[in-house]
Amino acid sequence: MKSAWYPLAFVCTVTLFSHAALADDEAAIEHGRYLANAADCGACHTVDENKPFAGGLKIASPVGNIYSTNITPDKKTGIGDYSYEDFSRAVRDGIAKDGSVLYPAMPYPSYSRLTDDDVRDLYAYFHNSVQPQQQPNRKTDIPWPLNMRWPLHLWKWAFVSDPAHKPPMKDPQWARGAYLVQSLGHCGACHTPRGVAFQEKALDQTDSDYLTGGKIDNWFAPDLTGSKVTGLGDWSQQDIVDFLDTGKNARTIAFGPMKEVITKSTHQMTDDDLNAIAIYLKTLRAKNNDPTLKDDPSTAHALTTGDVSATGAKNYVDNCSACHRSDGKGYPNIFPPLAHNTAILSDDPSSVINIILSGGAQPVTESDVTGIVMPDFADQLNNKQIADVATFIRNSWGNHAPPVTESDVKNARENLMKTKTQ
Q: 111 lies in a domain?
């Protein structure tokens, strides 16, 4: 009689093991979904929201346009026939299944720091949860001989650090924040200046150039270090968390490409991870010893008394003051302040010019569904008027930044027109 229980016990053991394995698989897939959001994969690999991750986004490079690839599990046009090893090699080493080197528009210099476990979970998600989409990859617009990829092997050798590199341990939250910023979030891809070979000048905090701001398309991604003038020096940890979660805080509101990063990536992250990112960023020292910005009431006094004699002041009153006020302080979480707004005070005025030219909507999240829109002024104001009002904004209420020239605006307007017509 005793032996009769053995088959039943075997079946029960196998069943329990199968359920445990299934639960592990589901957990891996769901964690992979979280990682894909944290890495903002959809920002580059999704053009049509009905075909997520099917690729086709045009990405400008110094030598021509690149188009993002199909990373759905379609076997003909996507990554359906990629093994885990193929997938890992593409994500972390920048080598496609056919052996070709990927253009560094794919941020594999950052992804090289991903852990094995995270890459496995990403693989599980893309191969088991993403819907296959049959959409052939588009060839680049880069002309011959610049489209030859073998020089990219040399580029990788020169500029991609050892994948085994890990940030030095300080405390678990700091280490988690460093990992998220340096690898998954690949923040340096936009916020770190580029060198002559279009490489990020630094990949972590051991180099003073790291996250000090960078030009991306027609925008300038601002300084994320402790600079009190252009960076996060006067931001609190909660300011950073609020901004990453909602796209706004008492100091600024997300604009340009950062708006999509908020809605599709950082807003989807846990509070623990957002706090870890904030803890890490608050430890980054400013490259330069900038003084704290101080209030200067003279601009507000002049405007409220009707004095618009300063260059750009009249255009500010006519077009900007209704929302941003004569004191430049705006209305908290509705219209951002311009006074002491570090995002608009970098030496590179690209973002200020572009937001005036093209306007833009605020991020939409569960906490704020309004999506308030700033109108564009490309048709209302000429190049000189925009240069004057931008300079006025960057040098009023205690702000200090280099003047914006008419030539700066002309170039930005031409780049904007090219983007619209391509």
A: yes
Given a contact cutoff of 8 angstroms between Cβ atoms, the answer to whether 102 and 95 are in contact is yes
In terms of pLDDT, which residue wins out, 53 or 15? 53
Contact 236, 278 (CB under 8 A): no
* Residue 56 near residue 138, CB atoms below 8 Å: yes
At which of 123, 143, 164 does a domain end?
A: 164
Give the pTM. Answer: 0.90
Those residues with Cβ within 8 angstroms of residue 191's Cβ, 6 or more apart along the chain or in another chain: 211, 212, 213, 214, 221, 222, 223, 224
DSSP symbol at 83: -
25 C-beta neighbours (distance < 10 Å), count:
12
17 class by beta-carbon count within 10 Å (0-12 exposed, 13-18 middle, 19+ buried)? exposed
Number of C-beta neighbours around residue 143 at 10 A: 9
Single out the residue in 164, 190, 221 at which a domain terminates: 164
Q: How confident is the model at residue 164 (pLDDT cuts 50, 70, 90)?
A: low
Q: Is residue 110 part of a domain?
A: yes
Question: What whole-number distance in Å separates Cα of residue 112 and Cα of residue 161?
Answer: 8
Q: Which domain holds residue 24?
A: 13-164
- Per residue in 20-71, pLDDT (tens digit) is 444 559 999 999 999 999 999 999 999 999 999 999 998 877 778 889 999 9
Distance, CA of 129 to CA of 27 (rounded, Å)? 12
Q: Are residues 160 and 18 in the same domain?
A: yes
